[in-house]
Batch of 4 targets.
Target 1
Amino acid sequence: MSRKYNLVNDKDIKTHLFFNPAKKGDMEDIKYLLDYDEENDAQYKDISNYIMRVVDKSEFLCKGVNKEYVLESFNKVDAVIVIGSSMNVLPNGNIYGFALIQFDEIKNLLYIDLICSHNGIRGAGVKLLNEIEKVCNKLMMDVIKLTSIKTAIPFYEKYGFVKKNSACKTMCIMTKMVVKTKSKSSKSSKSSKSAKSSKSAKSSKSAKSSKSSKSPRSSKSPRSSKKLDGSKTRKNRK
């Protein structure tokens, strides 16, 4: 593939999510919120083996990363997010990048244990970060956390990550606050509330206007009746 190929605007890219079946008991709520297909659990070993073969035989994915560390990460993380072919990435689809992630529900954050993108394609890393942020939004998690090597720090800083220790130079812990996106349901509920409030405001205004139009007539009648009564009594006295 050409090094000038840009992935950002490619509509044929698909995101694939696979959960580690070893963490099945702890992930039920998260899977439910992500509308996850449980059948993908059976493919976790297959996708990890396939990625390891690509990493082992090529130099365009996870270049410079210790292969044993990649394998160990697959065994301990909760899930893997893969960006690749628009069709099924297994058994031999194109892989443009992947991220091994862990969920911390107590601290309400997502930790990226490892992220690898195709070094011959532009935009793969950005696409992965965007997909991870979408996952956080669905789970209502506030923070994305990772540990970055020295050469990758400027990249993460460009996309909103901040070093926990500003003096850190290499292997730095970095975090990013998740930008919350409003769901369609919340927008519709707000619009319906505003519609109801506007209707109630109109009805209250019409009620006030009708009362105000009636009140002058009612206020005049008692006074006029008193004057008439007074005039009659004066005539009778005379």
Target 2
Amino acid sequence: MVLTDFSSGGAALGTAFLACEESFASPGYRELLFDKAREETVLSAASGRLARGLPNRLSREMGAGVQLPPDPRVQAWLTERLRAAAAVQDRTDLLPLWAGQAAPLIHFRKARALFDALVAQASVERDASSSEGPSSLTPETTDASGLFAPTMFSAGGRA
């Protein structure tokens, strides 16, 4: 499958599926992934290791300039109660809001619609690559992260 050619594709797809109603993400978290005012993602150490996510109070206060514990499981244990209470209250300011750099391109709210668009795009790409040689990907068909251009997330608009 064409998508396996991209090392960062898994993160982008994870974020796209996380935004779908079928995910276990809180409603507030999913809505923030669709908030076009939040076009920035940041690297944070709030989990005990560097990860990319949407900026919020947790990422600012716990993730910036903090010395990491030797084992991320220690950080998970230290923040377990905070994360559990924040999840129950849907406090997105205190939840880790993991998201890849392509988060602003997300448009699908249903996993089936996202999956169908991915399959359709992979089919088009496969057909194009079989007629054009080893790869038909060009700077015009990919975004800065090396993923397919925004059609990967927005084909057919919000579904």
Target 3
Amino acid sequence: MTYLTENIPWWLDIARILLAGLLGVIIGWQREHHGREAGIRTYMAASLGACAFGLVSNAIGDQGRISAGIVTGVGFIGAGIILRDAGRVTGLTTAATLWASAAVGLSAAYGIYRQSARNLAPWKLELTSLSRDFRFDAAFERPNEPAAQSVL
């Protein structure tokens, strides 16, 4: 079997793992800082795990199938995070950001460094700028009309 990574130096794999861990920590710090369910260790683990599987897929040359398994597996973990209690759904943002941190780790494993960093920017913007009480429909209300009633 011919490995695709024979000519890649070992330190490059270490750098990719470190980058994935660092970006996972950045996502996790924000979530932990705001008192959410998952924090630094959870997001770092998701990012590092996706990076490790990505490095394996680089080595054996089967990026498509292993990447699909990572996306499915982390999505399944995210589904376990989502809870419904008394008509209220919680954990959606945690599940989505966990899935996104795996994408950051996978892109780091494939050597797409700029994309890893670029992927982080919209999530940080979304998580820090939108509060829990933000209503998208409120941005389109006319000043003299009453607010729309929520169905939830």
Target 4
Amino acid sequence: MERKIIREIENEDPSTHWGFLPVENKVVLDLGCGLNSEFAPTPWYFIQERGAKMVYGIDPSPESYEWFKRNYNIPNFLPIMDYCDSLQKHEYYLKATTPDVIKCDIEGSEIYMMAIKPEFLTNVKHIAIEYHNLPCLISVEKMFEDNGYEVEYYKFPHLALDHQGVIHGFKKTEPVVKLRQTKEQYQDEQLKEWNGGHPQNQI
């Protein structure tokens, strides 16, 4: 299959690495939110720079957890110290947080995303996963296809896309039902014009 590369990811700056995610006024499940020595952590970026409504950050690092508790203790961010290293944990956090957007960078444990049941993804419009090998990429692609997501790719300049990169799955924002409603609205406008600017009389 042809993989559509949008651009390269040049560094770990969240605006470069995850800036394509539309998190404004959204609930975000941030899997792998640990501190980076050079750039701001992703929860800070999602909330302060992008206006996310709520961020749930999962990371196993005690240092990151303590730093967040001391320095970023705000109502719309909840840090959780845990490994996301099983399907059960992935589904537990999806059910508990009901996110609109998922960002996943958990160093190989993203493989569990492939087995998530469809009912846990019903309301998730965007999922971005940093994958770390070709079998994981293929598995995640299959998960996106099975659940009705379109996909695009972001490449690291020094790595082959098959080896490591970011895959972004997203659902179309204009479902068929909305298109039908738009058509009905158009027909109503036509009826108004045909009736001298007034709605059609009801019998």
